[in-house]
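SEQUENCE-TO-STRUCTURE ENTRY
===========================
What this section holds: a protein sequence and its matching fold, both as plain text.
Question of interest: how does this chain fold, as expressed in backbone structure tokens?
***
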Amino acid sequence: QDAIDRKEKRSETFKTAVHGLETGTPALKTEELGRRAPQWVRDNLVTMCMRCKEPFNAIMRRRHHCRACGYVVCARCSDYKAELQYDGNRLNRVCQECYVFLTGHVVLEDREGKHKGILEKEAAEVSGRSLLCSSLQLLDKNGKGGTRGWFVIPQDDPLVLYIYAAPQDVRAHTSIPLLGYQVRDLSQGDSRHLFQLAQSRQVYTFVADTEELKRRWMRAMARSAAGITHLEEGEDADS
């Protein structure tokens, strides 16, 4: 009876995950999950995570596909792995709902027993031990608009830039691995203090409040991009 109850609970948890979304892509039946490869929902059909409903915007860019149901989900909602029968029982990236259904494991809100990820830590906690943190504006691709947020390079993870919507947010929207990027100065005739991170076709354009703040960020990002993870004795974080 206990096994039956667990099975029914898992099926009920997953019911809304495989039905009701009008995306034009047929969903797998519950009994087919993990046994048959899903048809992936196309990226251009959704503007937000199909699990937590967080929008995919200028800050939250990363889209991932659950290998079990084919839904488009954010990094946080796809931070799970389960064995899929159709892929030789190899571990694949899956969304939380599929993970619960396929494994029977209960996922607690604070993910008990798992190291708390940096994206889930409060901005104030990370900022208090950062190499550099401040408000910046991240421009969109056409450079005419953008999103203002709170940007942090933590001391304990100095090769990554973390982006919060506000200094008191309880978790970051996303992160940008800085290693290998080039830092560019965009000096212009207007009063905006612009600079860029560029790597291959991926380009991020930032606006700082002052020229001094821009220079500090450019130095800090250049260090991280070069893989420098420690400070010399007596050296400031942004020097």
